[in-house]
Amino acid sequence: MSNMLPDMRGYFGEFGGRFVPETLINVLNELEKSFDNFQKSDEVKTELADLLENYAGRPTPLYFAKRLSEKTGVRIYLKREDLLHTGAHKLNNTLGQIMLARFMNKKRIIAETGAGQHGVATATVCALMGLECVVYMGAVDIARQATNVKRMKLLGATVVPVTSGSQTLKDAVNEALRDWVKSCQNTHYILGSVTGPHPFPKIVREFQKIIGEETIRQFKLKEGRLPDAVFACVGGGSNAAGMFYPFAETDVPLYGVEAGGRSHNPGDHCETLTQGSPGIFQGARSYLIQDGYGQVLPVHSVSAGLDYPSVGPEHSFWKDANRVTYVSCNDEDALAACDTLTKLEGILPALESSHAVGYLLQNMSTFKGKTVVINLSGRGDKDLGIILGEVKL
Ligand SMILES: *Cc1c(COP(=O)(O)O)cnc(C)c1O
Fold this sequence. Notes:
393 residues, alpha/beta, 44% helix, binds pyridoxal-5'-phosphate
């Protein structure tokens, strides 16, 4: 297992790389070089650390969920990324990348969004820095995440509906890349997960790994050791990578929980790592959901943030290296877990995070007596309409 990845070419083993139009190669090279310089600058690192603490609210707590633990027989800690400003882990990445954009003198920001959390986190940091912001969002997601669309507009962003393909996250990424090919001279693309062409998977992981670093520190203070297991949901894979990466060199068992879709509809297929196969998609080689001809297949999940047919290349590497166990939780079990956590702890989790909780609830006996950490990637306010059955999927 190597924490030195990706290599010089942007590969995690056989995954990752850079599969993009000619016009983007230069800008990706520039981004890679700027990120290296950025990481070497004490001045920007100090400023980012200050924003993470005083603007975003880090460190987020590591909370012992007493009543949930009593119910399950598993001692459960929750890493409270739901308490981060704007309500999810996304801000760790957008704060880092907006400072990187400023470092590179880019005046315009574009982003893609699924559930709208990354769009809100991007619009937020653009307001903070006074930069123009354009967010691409699938029309289906716009319909099911109306509150986040309103938030982005209030923050001064332009939300562009994407009506191609399945009108969800993957189509929004395509549109953002199309914009960037034309605009990269003055525009930075704040990509929202550990996906896309090199160096994005590395940049986003570096900005998210603070989740796992804090967790190790906090858990050691409370328990004097490392956890028996760590769980995180996996869409593109950024909250999981941020949690897992600092654990990669330890022997703590890590579980990435993907969306299983509707239990009565086996064709939903969001389980990229357990049902997919390697291929090239949106700039990188990774596991993806494809047919025999390499065509990407439609996926479905109750949570817009997990509705993505591929996954970050580092997860594909961890899977093949047997470092992380990838499992799934279906829509119904995630909704039930959301209800359980809300009723027992007074914490309304995002439907994405509910998949990680749901997997543990479905497998309580396996982890009986263990002390574990679940990364609670976000809060559920954005999902109220779906949870209450008011929004049709
Ligand atoms: C966006 C989002 C996810 C999925 O994205 P990852 O890159 O896999 O982390 C999970 N949880 C929440 C709350 C989100 O907003």
